[in-house]
């Protein structure tokens, strides 16, 4: 190698440093996955706020029940689904593996499980709606069961992708940890 103003080492033109300036792939992946998970968490918070608003309007009778129906039973445990998202966000600054694992486990327990229960709870009403065309609960003139099934489908996708990206992020962090242990 050469000094700043002095002669160059024999056999080099000074461009052989390029390979050392690349960021390791697991660090790049970590940044990308954190960004994707944050987007999914913010989407989840939006869904969560909509359900919270529907529950508040239903319980406090801010609008008539023909405008906004009372919440289904699955919506109450789903309110706890904000906790895994907060754990996920807390795991990011220091790449805390234990917080991310807790977030993934509690996502299954507090987010995915209520969604599965909700799909089963609303199935008889959806079946009645599509067989006989009768709906008894409404949200702003639309069938409540149709709207809530749409919410369940979107939320299931959000949580599914969140779990997928969290697993990939966990793998990326383990790769980083293993490389540090080798040194």
Automatic annotation (TrEMBL):
InterPro entries: Jagunal. It is found in: Endoplasmic reticulum membrane. The chain crosses the membrane at residues 40-62, 99-118, 138-158. Pfam families: Jagunal. One of its GO terms (cellular component) is endoplasmic reticulum membrane. It is a multi-pass membrane protein. Keywords: Endoplasmic reticulum, Membrane, Transmembrane, Transmembrane helix. One of its GO terms (biological process) is vesicle-mediated transport. The keyword Signal does not apply. It comes from the Eukaryota. Belongs to the jagunal family. This is Protein jagunal homolog 1. The lineage of its organism: Eukaryota, Metazoa, Chordata, Craniata, Vertebrata.
């Amino acid at each position: 190698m050469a000094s700043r103003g002095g002669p160059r080492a024999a056999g080099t033109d000074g461009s052989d440093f390029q390979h050392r300036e690349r960021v390791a792939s697991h660090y790049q992946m970590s940044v990308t996955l954190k960004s994707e998970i944050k987007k999914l968490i913010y989407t989840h918070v939006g869904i969560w706020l909509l359900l919270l608003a529907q529950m508040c309007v239903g319980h406090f009778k801010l609008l008539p029940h023909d405008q906004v129906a009372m919440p289904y039973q699955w919506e109450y445990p789903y309110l706890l689904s904000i906790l895994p998202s907060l754990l996920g966000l807390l795991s990011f600054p220091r790449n805390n593996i234990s917080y991310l694992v807790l977030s993934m486990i509690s996502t299954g327990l507090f987010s995915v499980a209520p969604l599965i229960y909700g799909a089963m709870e609303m199935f008889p009403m959806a079946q009645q709606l599509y067989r006989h065309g009768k709906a008894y609960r409404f949200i702003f003139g639309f069938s409540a069961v149709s709207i809530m099934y749409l919410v369940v489908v979107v939320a299931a996708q959000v949580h599914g992708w969140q779990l997928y990206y969290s697993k990939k992020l966990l793998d990326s962090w383990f790769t980083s940890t293993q490389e540090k242990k080798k040194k």
